[in-house]
Amino acid sequence: MYKRLLSATLLTLSAVPASADDHGCGNVTIADMNWNSASLIANIDQFILEHGYGCDAELVPGDTMPTGTSMIEKGEPDIAPEFWSNSMREGLQRGIDEGRIHYAGQAFVEGGEEGFWVPKYMIDQHPELKTISGVKANADLFPHPEDPSKAAFYGCPAGWSCQITSENNFKALDLADSGFEIVDPGSGAGLAGSIAKAYEREEAWFGYYWAPTAVLGKYEMVKVDFETGTDVEHYKSCITSDECITSKATMYPAADVETVVTERFAKRAPEAMAYIENRGFTNDQMNGLLAWMEDNQADGEYAMINFLINHEDIWTQWVPNEVASKIKDAL
C-alpha cells in the first residue's frame, strides 16, 4: 500500500512542470552513487533543482573513482552530491587547480564519523565504559563468542581500508594486553548483524563502526573516548598505513564528505549553486533517514519523497522562501 501511494505521488509530480524561471540553470546531470545516503541526496537535489530552480535535472549512475575522474576529465556529471574526498584528494585538487571542478560545501556537515563503540544500555549500567581506560578495566564484560576467557573486539571486515586503521588503533591502545582479541565479522553485513544481535538481546558489544549508517540510526551506540585527542597528521601518516610500526593511539578525525560540482555548473547557475552550498545533513539526521530506508526497503526516490514531506524543517533552511513555496506546491 505504501509503495502504491508513493508511486501515485510520483506520477502526479512528474506531471508538474518545472518553473519557467530557470535562472540560467539549464540541463544538469547528478551522480546517483550506488549507496543509500548518496542516492537519497541525489534524488533530493534532482527534485529541488527541477521544481525549485527550473533546472532540467537528470540522474546518472555514479561511483566515487569513475565519477570523480569523469568530472575532472570530461566535465560531467555536473554534481556529485556525496563525495568522500579523502579517497581521491590528489586528483580532486588537480581538477580544482585546473579550474575544472569546485567544492560546494559539506554533504555531511560534521564529516563522516568513525570510532570504537559500545551500546548505550551498557553505558547506563557502567558509565566508566565511556572511556577506553574504563573498557580495558572491564574487559570481562565483553566475553569472546568462541572463548569466554578472552574479551571480544569486533573489527572491520578483512580487505576494507578500515581494517588497517582499526587494527592499528587496537595495537596502539594495548587492547590485547587487557585480554581483547579481534573478531573478524566476515563482511559489512556480518558486522552490522553483530550489533543488531547484541541489541536485541541486550548483550555486550565493543568494536569498530562508522556513521552515517542505518545501524547507528536504529541502535543507540556511544563512541568510546580514547583519552588521546586527535592527531590528524599521525592518523594520515601511520594509522592508515599497513606498514605502520610505531603507531600511537588517536581518535579518528572526521572524514571530509563534500559535494563536488563542475566549475561550469558553478558559474552557469549561481542560485542553484547557492542551494548546493547550503544543503547538508548532520550525522544524526542521516542516520535516521537511512534507518527509515532500511526499515521500509525504500530506494533513493521513495526516501526523497518521505524526506521532503516529513522533514520540511530541515530542507526549508537550505532555500529562499520563494523557492520553498515552489517545492511545496509541487508536493
TrEMBL record:
Domain (ABC-type glycine betaine transport system substrate-binding) ranges: 27-308
InterPro entries referenced in this protein's UniProt entry, alphabetically: ABC_Gly_betaine_transp_sub-bd
Signal peptide boundaries: 1-20
Pfam families, alphabetized: OpuAC
Domain of life: Bacteria
Entry keywords, A to Z: Signal
Protein name, per record: ABC transporter substrate-binding protein
Organism, as annotated: Salinivibrio costicola subsp. alcaliphilus
